[in-house]
Design brief:
heterodimer, A: about 110 residues, 6-stranded mixed β-sheet, 3 helices, about 25% strand, globular, B: about 300 residues, 2 domains, two-stranded antiparallel ribbon, 11 helices, binds iron/sulfur cluster
């Protein structure tokens, strides 16, 4: 499974970003191999619509779940409509993915 | 302003509750007595329209304000994602099997429908507000815009409301508070902007912003000081320094506040204010004709 994590950095040790819409990068982790790709978030500097733009990046990367400190109403609507699970996570990207696999993260709707 | 058309005066304030609507409606009432049937008041504060509370108009017509938003036929759509890729406002997203539109973000530019390779997108009307038309017992033509509940985009409603501006009438525009887009879109319809302020440091700070906005937009402005008190010269000094006309002082007065609470304008409740309000309008006209002459001489 692929999981997209909002982050200000570029790897598994980078911190999870508080906000999906404004994060610098979306890090997409393959949970089978823990390999990852870094996608820059076009909405990071945008005004309104940042959450939708970031949600589109997550979907285009083929992720089935997304992790961020927080989700705006627009990105949540996009994820819920498209069937991508959104989870609240913290710590590093790697820790957040581990926590998700352990079933420790809270699902937001 | 062409020679035959009558001027449009906007009334603005740095924040709500400064007496902007009280002044705008009072001016309309005073002018309607010497120019019967020739005065129009347009309430452009579409997020919180309230000029009706003071003018008590009879509303005869409501016109809907619509914007175009995309509608996707999911049976035809191939989920190619081109619409989302080309939308500059992130107002449409293709998330796995779903195509989701965000009407609040949509600028109705039509790009998504244009790029869709299979013609799955049509543009449909969505109502975002309405404009009420009517008149008062004194024969003031009344127009009031109102944003639909839950809608966030004031712009189309403000524009539709402001464009009811009738050139053959003396038009007073009640602008939304602040200096953001809706205020600018309103005063853009006017030849002159009257800024209502309180004589407090906070009022002065707001006034400075408003004056800067008017200057940047090239709209001449003057100031009305509401709830004026002796010993608060800050706003007056600022206006003198900047060469801005102070058109009127409305004192801090319990009777005025009570009349307002009863839903009466200054001109209705206090006949002695009548001439003062008319004088303000004449000062504005004089200042406009001086600017026009200066422009011709340039
Ligand atoms: S009409 Fe323009 S702004 Fe609205 S969704 Fe389509 S492309 Fe985006
Ligand atoms: S461009 Fe047309 S076909 Fe492609 S995803 Fe958008 S609506 Fe569907």
């Amino acid at each position: 499974m692929k999981v997209a994590v909002a982050s200000s950095g570029e790897g598994l040790n980078a911190p999870v970003d508080m906000r999906l819409g404004r994060c610098a990068n979306v890090i997409v982790v393959d949970t089978d191999t823990m390999e990852f790709e870094v996608h820059s978030n076009p909405g990071a500097l945008a005004g309104t619509g940042a959450g939708v733009a970031a949600a589109q990046v997550v979907a285009d990367a083929g992720a089935e779940a997304a992790i961020a400190g927080n989700f705006g109403i627009n990105s949540l609507r996009a994820f819920n409509s498209g069937g991508i699970a959104a989870y609240v996570g913290s710590g590093t990207v790697g820790q957040a993915v581990e926590a998700l696999l352990a079933g420790e993260l809270e699902l937001v709707e | 302003m062409s020679e035959r058309s009558k001027p449009t005066v906007s009334v603005a304030a740095g924040k709500g509750g400064t007496g902007k609507t009280l002044f705008a409606t009072s001016l309309a009432v005073a002018l309607s007595e010497i120019h019967p049937g020739q005065v129009q008041l347009i309430d452009c504060d579409v997020e919180e329209p309230n000029a009706d509370i003071l003018l008590h108009p009879q509303i005869t017509q409501h016109t809907p304000v619509n914007v175009l938003v995309p509608q996707v036929d999911l049976d035809i759509c191939t989920r190619c994602g081109l619409c989302a890729k080309h939308c500059q406002f992130s107002a449409i997203a293709v998330i796995r099997d779903a195509v989701i539109t965000f009407p609040d973000l949509c600028a109705a530019c039509g790009v998504c429908a244009y790029v869709c390779p299979v013609g799955a997108i049509t543009e449909v009307n969505r109502q975002v507000g309405s404009v009420a038309h009517g008149s008062t017992v004194r024969g003031i033509e009344f127009v009031q815009g109102r944003l639909s509940v839950g809608d966030q985009r004031a712009t189309p409603v403000t524009r539709a409301t402001g464009s009811c501006n009738d050139d053959s009438m003396i038009t007073i525009l009640d602008a939304p508070p602040g200096t953001a887009c809706p205020m600018q879109e309103t005063i853009e319809f006017s030849d002159y902007c009257i800024l209502v302020t309180e004589p407090t440091p906070f009022g002065l700070a707001n006034l400075e912003d408003s004056v800067e906005t008017c200057r940047r937009m090239g709209i001449p402005c003057g100031v009305v000081i509401n709830r004026d008190q002796a010993g608060r010269p800050g706003v007056e000094d600022y206006c003198t320094r900047e060469g801005i006309d102070v058109l009127l002082h409305i004192p801090e007065d319990r009777e005025i506040a009570e009349a307002y609470a009863r839903g009466e304008t200054l001109a209705d409740a206090f006949p002695q204010w009548h001439d003062e309000l008319v004088r303000v309008y004449e000062d504005v006209i004089r200042s406009l004709s001086q600017t026009a002459t200066a422009k011709v001489e340039e």
